[in-house]
Amino acid sequence: MFSSLQNPLSLIGRVLLAQLFIPAGFSKISHFAGTVGYISSKGVPFAELAAAAAIGVEVGLGLLLLVGFKTRWAALGIAIFTVVVSFIFHDFWAVPAEQVVAQQQNFFKNIAIAGGLLTVMAWGAGAWSFDGKSGE
């Protein structure tokens, strides 16, 4: 029953995951100074380079995920990025008590998103993708 839904659901899943990252990357471009300031406030060295890398992951790999080109690698890259930034920006164990719940929810939401991305890596993009058309 579900096998007939595999390709449309794979496409919908990629679109929903990509919509988290692509707009966030474009927002970082249009608010670059603020992004660099926020990254710096978390103690990340080379904040401008980190911001540029985040834009590259969110926009570049996000677009690859969206269209399903080199999807497994894009999903893995975004998953690693998501886990790393979760530990830096949602460190619920090191925030004031009134922020713990919100940061903990954001942390585990991101970890779940990484899990979804790893599923995409494991199973691929589906037939309705550039990878699917090329037989990957």
Q: Can you walk me through this structure?
A:
The chain has helices at residues 6-30, 32-41, 47-67, 71-89, 100-123, 130-134. With 136 residues, it is mainly α. The two termini are 24 Å apart.
In short:
With 136 residues, this protein is an all-alpha fold. It is built from six helices and no strands.
SSE layout and pairings?
Blueprint: H1 6-30, H2 32-41, H3 47-67, H4 71-89, H5 100-123, H6 130-134
Structural classification: mainly alpha
Overall average residue pLDDT:
97
One letter per element, helices H and strands E, the order comes to: HHHHHH
Helices, by number, come to 6
Q: Please bin the fraction of helical residues.
A: over 70%
User: What is the general shape?
Assistant: globular
The overall strand count is 0
As a percent range, the share of strand residues is: under 5%
The number of domains is 1
Characteristics:
136 residues; mainly alpha; 6 helices
